[in-house]
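Entry 14. Two folds queued back to back today. First construct below, sequence then structure tokens.
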Amino acid sequence: MGLNIQEKIKRIKKWQKSGFVHELTCGGDNCNKILVHGFCDCDKEDTKGHLVLECPKCDYVQHYIPEAIFNIDYKQFDDVKKMMDKARKKKGIKNE
């Protein structure tokens, strides 16, 4: 069963805020801002309204969203984050 739009958005947000994987960032003009979800407003009928990643600073739009974001086991993802946070705390490093 495929994910609905709300679940895809939730997973994108979780990926982007994880703190231990590289965020998907803007590829336009060396902007490097973290991309946020949006919906394609292009003129192409076959992609209009599709979920995309957008730069909050410039007009860069990324139509491709890596499948790993939707296929990862987020329970394990959360467990790894907890382990990393615990290790950082033990070393005196502030968690993000």
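Second construct, same run, same settings:
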Amino acid sequence: MPKTLDNVWKSSIGRDCRDLQTSLANWLGERLVFLGANTQGHPPKYTFDEWTHTLTKHGEALLNYAAKASEGESDTPDYREAQNALFFVTRNLGHLWD
């Protein structure tokens, strides 16, 4: 079957990309919350409690943003919190493991 734009955008990755702000925030938020609840270690600059709290806080910020964005509200305080969560991820990418 030849690829058509309709086929491409109906694929699972196409559906995610149509609204990447929501799908990315959901995907990453769920995983940060999971790590916050299940991690066994922490980076040196955090205590264990600070690390788990921070993971959960940023995960929930992304999930809150995704919920608002899917309703058409994107420029809210949740947006700024979601941006902060993404900055946290970039600063700590090497520590997002367990």
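Quick look at the second one. Residues 17-95 form one domain. The chain has a mean pLDDT of 90.
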